Every structure is written in structure tokens, then in C-alpha cells.
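Journal club prep — side note

Before the paper discussion, L.F. wants everyone to see what a predicted structure for a comparable chain looks like in C-alpha cell form. Sequence:
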Amino acid sequence: MARIRIAVIGTGFGTRVQIPGFQESGEFEVVAVGSHAERRACEVAERFAIPHAFWDHRALLALPGLDVVSVVTTPEFHEPLVLETLAAGKHVFCEKPLARNLDEARRMASAAEAAAAAGLVAMVDHEFRWQPERRHVKELLDEGFVGTPYGVSAVSHMGLFADPEKPAWSWWQERARGAGWLLNSGTHLIDTLRWWLGDVERVAGFTATKVARRRRRDGTWAPVDTDDSFGALLRFRSGADAVLHQSAVAVAGRTNLVEITGSEGVLIIDGHGRLLGARRGEAEPQPLATPEHLLAGAPRDFRPPAAGATGAQATEALRAMEIPPFVCLARELAAAIRERRTREPSIVDAARTQEVCEAIERSVREGRWLELPL
């Protein structure tokens, strides 16, 4: 079967994960790379043996035989590039966050729905759905492992922006460009919770900027107007509740925990990415083995690091796990394109996740619970 011809616009995450992931999937031929900088586009094309490099997206869209475009730019360019790609009759795959705000997201969703009538696929890179433990949780919830879900608590603390001098000030500190920890990390969590538990009904939350200045590369200091921490209370239409807290300014250590409680059991993803569970009457949650069908056919290094892995060994194992979930999503994208029918996670669904994020931000400004839809 002929490989699907794809172009990747964006050379940050696009270079680190998407291009190698598409190439490893066995489904795609990366025929073009795009960047606003000619030199960068040419360097990446040479590094990955990609035949075409573009620094004008309109020329890229005119490339003969191109099937699909992956938009991996900073968020302020997502809407125009997605709309132009669909208008050019190409399938589109967009990095998260989908947009800078709900208005942009809804315009993209409307365009995606209209393009679907012509068989065009419009999907979003919520690759964490393909982490084995998250897929296992989804299966167990659907099978009734916890009974009626009561609540979720999710905590994530890391140190990406804890040092005001490293990394240097960049677009990550500009809300107008679509930055912020809620949009860029929280969207993954909110997408996962909506996938597990359904739509959100009510939202209250807070955002905070704990590190308010960051040093530029020239040594001067610049203000930060994006959140580096956020928290939220969510009420799902199913009646389940969630308590979320994420921070990118922890000065030491790393925490990433999710716990789901229900009428008949509990599921926990611990700080090592392991899934534990217990049913009513069992004293303590025990490790749950990942079913082979969730690992079969997945790329090498997909399996979690060994329980005894520590230090550099554990860090390298976790880094190696960044691409495999993306490869699985790439294969899902390929199947959708061959069927000419969008699969989840779609742009339409991602607009609903964007709505939850916007509701949290509005809740901060208005100091109250907000009902969805907005």
C-alpha cells in the first residue's frame, strides 16, 4: 500500500517527535518540511532526508501529490494554517493546544465539519491517549471496574519554568501567542478526562504566574504574562467530579499522579506511570498488568521503564517513551485518511476541550462557577 504523503510545518516539536514519529509509523512519507526560517527548513530537510523544504506555506500547500499537512507551529498560526490547508483540499493534523481562544477553536471546528463532507480528515495531536496506562484506564472504566465514577484527583508538578533564567524568555511567556501552562499542559489532562468520563458541565478554577519575570537571551529581563500554574474543579455531566492542580515551577522533584474513585473501586496512575487498582473489599491497590493487546504492534520502547529504574536510567526510559504514543496516533490518522473519515481525537472534539480551558480562565476573571457550553 502506498504511503501517505505528508508535510510538517514547524521545526520544534515537529523535529523532536512528529517527523521521526511519522517516519517510524510505516504509514507516511514525509515529503516536505516548512519553517518561517529558510535556513532552519533546509537543515531539518537534510537531517531527515526530506526532499522538499519550504519557508512559504502557500508554496508548500501547492506541492503536487501532497495528501496531508501537520501544523506544528506556535498556536497563533494554527487557525490560519488549518483553514488554508482544508481550503486547499488537504487533510490536516494540528498540534495542541488547538487555538489561542475559543473563538478560533470554533471557527476551526466549523471548517472541519464542512470539510468532512468532502472526505477530508481533521485531527489533533492528543497523543497521550495512546499511553498504555491511559488506554487501560479507559477500558477498565468502560468495563465498570470502579462502578459509578465518583471523582478524580490529578496532580502534576515539574520544574520546567522554576528557574527565572533558564530557559530563556520566549513565546512560552506570551499569552497572546497561545502560551500558558493551562493551554499547553492542561489540555492533555482535560482531553484525557473528557475521553474517560464524558463532557464537563461546570467549571471553577484559578491560574497563577509564580515566576513573573524571565531573563532574555541578551541578558535583560522581561515580564511574563502567562500562567505557570493552574487549578480547577470540574463537574461532569455524569455526576463525577475532578480536582486538578498542575505547576511548572517546582524547584525539585517531579510529581504526576491521577486517582479515580468510584462506587466499586479505585484506579491510580502513580508517579512512575504504573497503573494500580483495587475493588471493593480489597485492602490496598495492586499493580495491574497492561494487557498485551495494548502493547502489541506498538513501537519499540513503548513499555514503561522497569520498576527499579532510577536516575539517568529512568529519565532516558521516559524520554524514549515520548515518540511511541505519537506513532500509534499517526497510525490512527493514516487509517482515518484511508477511510476518508475523521477519527478521534478530532478538531471538533478538541474545540470542546478548548471550551473547558476558556471556562477556567473566565472563572478566574469572574470569580464564580461557569456552566458549559459557554
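L.F.'s comment for the group: The mean pLDDT is 94. Keep this in mind when we get to the figures.
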